[in-house]
Amino acid sequence: MPSAYDTYAEGLFLSLTINMNKYVISPISYFFCAILVAFLVGWSVMFVEHSGGLHTFLFTGDIDVVVALLFWGGILFTLGNKLLFWVEKSEKQNWLTHLRQSALFYLVFIILGVPVLELVYNSFTVSSYSVGMGTIYYILPVLVASMGIIVNGVVTFIRHNKN
């Protein structure tokens, strides 16, 4: 027959496991918002450029990408943050919460940020270096990660000041 201590320890372990799962799953679920945003930005730009010949001023799609990112990222990252705070149900929101929830975004930003800086530097300094449409595969994840970091930081700051 289990003692009261065994039952207490088992309940405490189960409680800690559930809380740790929430804290580990929340950054991963927030990262899935970024994947959805990147997909919807790409789909929106392709839809706009291939339906009726709509283009931006320079016919490159750069303005289309920014507008689509601000639209889809603003909606989905805000909803994703609301979902994170609802799932975690933590009262204290601080900069450590922001770092934990945006950890995968910082990782993408650091890993892909260096090649993007090199592309931008070369496009401005080397006259024979041309930036083609393939660079969007480097730039879009960095832009999406940046937007995810910024939106999470703003929402965390607002929640922190509200409490």
Structural notes for this entry:
This protein has helices spanning 4-50, 62-88, 95-101, 103-125, 136-162. The longest helix is centred in the first third of the chain and has 47 residues, at 4-50. It contains five helices and no strands. Helices cover 80% and strands 0% of the residues. With 163 residues, the chain is an all-alpha fold. The chain has one domain (4-162). It is globular, with a radius of gyration of 21 Å.
Uncertain runs = none
Helix content: over 70%
Average residue-wise pLDDT:
75
Overall structural class, as computed from helix and strand content, comes to: mainly alpha
Q: What is the C-alpha radius of gyration, as a whole number of Å?
A: 21 Å
Quick summary of this structure?
With 163 residues, this protein is mainly alpha-helical. It contains five helices and no strands. It has one domain.
Key traits:
single chain, 163 residues, mainly alpha, 80% helix
Secondary structure: elements and pairs:
Layout: H1 4-50, H2 62-88, H3 95-101, H4 103-125, H5 136-162
Helix pairs in contact: 1-2, 2-5, 3-5, 4-5
